[in-house]
């Protein structure tokens, strides 16, 4: 069994978006968080889980105000644990409710527009995962090169033809989200996207059928959003790319 990737243009969700949850890991997002959550709720989402990952600005206070809305659930980390821990705890919070057809995960910095969620969610069913593949046109040259250097070797080594392995705009089926909530380790910081791909390969083998991924092109805004990834995180991410791609290749033998 293998991971299959197909290119799609998206399909607006016909099912009620009230049966879709979204998880936003957030670190020092005081400038964007309220707008991000409001845009997600405007899509009709039934639940928005925001994980405040030890922010040192007013993100926590803003989140507590937003959580006055019963559709918003706040999770606070006392210290910064990294994106992967934030995603895990967000998925676990969403998994406590059993009526979600899909769970979206995206960053709270507004680089990706939550208003596009219905277009991605409409593909869940035939697909286990829908990935928003970022347009390259307006991507800064340094980020474009880094994305190419990560995605191309990963696809070649793992044998998984995904064009944007580092995209943080993702929608998971209920089964896939629950599997990640149970099996994804908290450690990993920025390697979440790579770590999860290895779990998908294991899931495909366990259930004896292909794991299907759809990539949908999405615009991405980089205005006023400098990268927070430190050099040590970049080195860890490079190692994760090679390690997880090689592990997937071994599973395919």
Concise structural overview:
The protein has eight helices and eight strands, in the order ββαβαβαβαβαβααβα.
Helix-strand layout with pairing:
Layout: E1 3-7, E2 20-26, H1 33-42, E3 47-53, H2 59-66, E4 72-77, H3 83-95, E5 102-105, H4 117-121, E6 129-134, H5 141-158, E7 170-173, H6 174-183, H7 192-207, E8 211-218, H8 231-251
Parallel strand pairs: 1-8, 2-3, 2-5, 3-4, 6-8
Antiparallel strand pairs: 5-7, 6-7
Helix pairs in contact: 3-6, 5-8, 6-7, 7-8
Structure description:
The chain is an alpha/beta fold and 253 residues long. It has one domain (3-251): Spore Coat Polysaccharide Biosynthesis Protein SpsA, Chain A, CATH 3.90.550.10. 40% of the residues lie in helices and 19% in strands. Helix 3 (83-95) packs across helix 6 (174-183), helix 6 (174-183) crosses helix 7 (192-207) and helix 7 packs parallel to helix 8. The longest helix has 21 residues, at 231-251. The termini are close together.
Primary descriptors:
8 helices; 253 residues; alpha/beta; Spore Coat Polysaccharide Biosynthesis Protein SpsA, Chain A; globular; eight-stranded mixed sheet; 40% helix
């Amino acid at each position: 069994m293998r991971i299959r990737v197909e290119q799609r243009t998206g399909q607006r969700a016909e099912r009620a978006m009230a049966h879709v949850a979204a998880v936003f890991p957030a670190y020092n997002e005081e400038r964007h968080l309220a707008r991000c959550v409001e845009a997600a709720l405007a899509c009709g989402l039934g639940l928005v889980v925001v994980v405040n990952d030890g922010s040192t600005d007013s993100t926590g206070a803003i989140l507590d105000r937003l959580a006055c809305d019963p559709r918003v659930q706040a999770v606070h980390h006392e210290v910064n644990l990294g994106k992967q821990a934030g995603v895990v705890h967000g998925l676990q919070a969403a998994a406590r409710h059993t009526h979600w057809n899909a769970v979206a995960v995206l960053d709270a910095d507004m680089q990706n527009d939550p208003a596009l969620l219905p277009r991605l969610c409409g593909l869940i069913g035939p697909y286990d995962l829908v990935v928003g593949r970022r347009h390259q046109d307006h991507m800064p040259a340094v980020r474009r090169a880094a994305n190419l250097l990560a995605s191309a070797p990963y696809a070649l080594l793992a044998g998984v033809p995904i064009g944007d392995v580092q995209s943080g705009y993702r929608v998971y089926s209920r089964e896939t989200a629950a599997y990640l909530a149970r099996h994804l380790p908290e450690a990993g910081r920025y390697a979440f996207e790579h770590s999860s791909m290895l779990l998908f390969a294991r899931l495909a083998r366990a259930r004896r059928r292909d794991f299907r991924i759809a990539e949908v092109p999405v615009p991405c805004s980089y205005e006023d959003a400098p990268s927070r990834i430190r050099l040590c995180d970049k080195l860890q991410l490079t190692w994760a790319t090679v390690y997880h791609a090689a592990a997937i290749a071994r599973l395919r033998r």
